[in-house]
UniProtKB/TrEMBL annotation:
Keywords: Flavoprotein, FMN. Pfam families: FMN_red. This is Flavoprotein WrbA. Residues 7-192 form the Flavodoxin-like domain. GO terms for molecular function: FMN binding; NAD(P)H dehydrogenase (quinone) activity.
Length: 200
């Protein structure tokens, strides 16, 4: 078991939006005493089965190990919306977690999701649901974002009650709006508080 409890912020990001969101979620986690954020990513997958990733990524967070997942106190899972679903590299990583499922390592731990899409109605909520499904199988407790976060009402871009999101339009690129940043932070803070409560 790791020395101090942590929320694992685990994501796949090809063009940086999700990586940017992860930083804001970490900010929210780190507002809560007694728990910290650990940011990890998953490697890309290749259509050529023999191709492998280098042991360390060229940039960004280290790749996640299964031990880092099994030892987390809570999980924030992030993926771009690809055709209304999580991206294949993240699904590929999750599909390697059957030993954790068999031993119940993630049961009763809080989980949440965050996503980014390039169109307003291009499947953000559906993608968040696709991330929720395997985590429910793992026995995790899914957390959305309650409407006490007023940015859910005022946003004109990303942000859903199912989880934080970002509208990555060509003009905004990876720059999150004020509302999107606030909702990422709120989500990080909420999962950290719930993880501390569930472990007290
Ligand atoms: C294969 C693929 C499928 C995509 N499907 C959708 C989609 O269904 N709806 C949408 O709005 N954007 C879609 N996008 C755009 C990405 O979701 C968007 O650019 C996202 O912000 C990328 O996140 P990243 O910057 O972290 O890589 C797709 C992009 C790719 C490469």
């Amino acid at each position: 078991m790791s020395s101090s409890p942590y929320i694992l912020i685990l994501f796949y990001s090809r063009h940086g939006s999700i990586a940017e969101m992860a930083k804001h979620i970490a900010r929210g986690v780190n507002k809560v005493t007694g728990i910290e954020a650990k940011i990890r990513q998953v490697p890309d997958v290749s259509s050529t089965a023999e191709a492998t990733s280098p042991a360390l990524p060229d940039e960004g967070a280290p790749y996640c190990t299964l031990d880092e997942l099994s030892e987390c106190t809570g999980l924030a899972l992030g993926s771009p919306s690809y055709f209304g679903s999580m991206a294949a590299p993240l699904k590929h990583f999750i599909d390697q977690t059957s030993t954790l499922w068999m031993t119940g390592q993630l049961i009763d731990k809080p989980a949440c999701g965050f996503t980014s899409a390039s169109t307003m109605h291009g499947g953000q909520e559906q993608c968040l649901h696709s991330m929720m499904t395997p985590l429910i199988h793992h026995g995790m407790v899914w957390l959305g974002l309650p409407y006490k976060n007023k940015e859910l009402i005022s946003t004109t871009s990303g942000g859903t009650p199912y989880g934080a999101s970002h509208l990555a339009s060509s003009t905004q690129e990876n720059n999150l709006t004020t509302e999107e940043k606030a909702l990422c932070e709120a989500q990080g803070e909420r999962i950290a508080k719930m993880a501390v409560k569930l472990n007290s």
